[in-house]
Amino acid sequence: MIAKLSGFFESLEERGADMRVVVLVTSFGDFAKAATPERVRVTFRKCPLRPAEHISVTARLMPPPPEAVRPGGCDFARDAFFKGFGAVGSGLGVIERAPPPLLLQINAAIDSARNDMTKRIARIIGGQAGAEAAALVTGKRGLISEETNKILHGAGIYRIVSISGLHMVLAAGAIFWLARAILALMPGIALHWPLKKIAAVLAMAGATGYCIFSGSEVATERSLIMILVMLGTIVADRPTLSMRNLAISALIVMAMEPDSVLGPSFQMSLGAVAALIAFAEWQRRRAPQAGSQPGLLARTFRAVRLGLAGMLLTSLIAGAATGPFGAYHFQTFNPFGVLGNMMALPFVSLVVMPTAMVGAILYPLGLDGAAWWIMGLATEPALAASGFVAGLDGSTQVIPAYDVSAVLCLGAALILLTLLTTWLRFAAVLLLAAGVALAASPQRANTYIDREAAGVAARSRAGQLGIMGRPGNVVLEQWLRADGDSRKARDATVHSGAACDSKGCIVTLPDVATVAWSRNPETVK
Questions:
Q1: Which architecture, in CATH terms, is 2-100?
Q2: The pTM is what?
């Protein structure tokens, strides 16, 4: 409906010529307070807005979709519920403003600072490298073009622009190393104080600040919890990399965000960390006893060799652990993801993130320009490497959506492989085989019907889905992707399987039955 929307401007993200604003609602039309959404997401044409101010504007709002567009598909309604979004829409007409309360001023000031830093980084570096670098620091991804998003997805490294585990680990690790190195230069402190514990506490504080500044998204908060638990073990004189610590982190996350268990971020991050910890424990048990100390050249060669091997192994292990969950949720597989990670992550880990930390420290002083320039020098080749990998034939494979039973078998296999240390772990082979068999023979639907009857997809005799009517592009692409079809919604061939006239369309199914979609209910007979 269209009505007067009043509320506090909470956050903003620019997207081309538009800006997407989150409004903490105080009133909407004649709705009673109990029925008014907590917050809504509204799109405006670009206009000046100050952080946290109270705005009133005529808005056209729609409820989140009531259900997934296909059985087992992404449930936008569930995600919107747990994020507190009661509606989405667009703003119409003139925006009226009023002063905001203090707490919202603080939150909005942080969001404004993120937007300002995003613009500054993007301006200094320029191009899509600047947009990617800005997203790495602030979490604002609106300046990244759709083409760049496709490249990052195709190379299997899109996670570098989504602030989560990778960024939090690099940021906390950099602070931990830097704090410990600086303190070690002070003999009075180094000889009498526990430097490692002090560095861990400083890293915990820095990681928390980075999480707050980057927008405190669900994936970032989840990564922060895991990092705080791991760093806390240093303070408590406990082993850092252990399954027990991972379990504690998972329990805290599930207590705070129970809905996250159903999402890809929780499943993929926990699966990757579990696999890496299990491999580290296995490697620790097989480590040779210390012998004679080799020379400098030999130590250097060994460090380089182990670094390259470690990067390859961690990419392979993490990719294998997260692959089943990624394929289940997104119906895509990136066979060259390991290559993309090996080519791009050294730039990100060794140059981009350290200079980003330096730039963030110097930003309030206005001395950050050189840091962003150096960051851009490393971002350009990382983006170029991603483009090379994404350009390889078959870099992105679309696979049919498989049933939840397949991912349960594959997930159970991962649990057995990572948690058990005896011969019983080989029972995972049976679950792995069952999961692969179920995933390789998915039950594909022959017909999809849009919730508003705007369109229908039915399998034609050619074996592909034929589209009747005009379902939304997001809906249509989910249907196609679930069918293992890589065509896009705007591809003209998606309508080739249907026979249409002025009254409607029909598709003949492989079993000779037909599905008809009518443009007018009166023509249905």
A1: Beta Barrel (2.40)
A2: 0.71
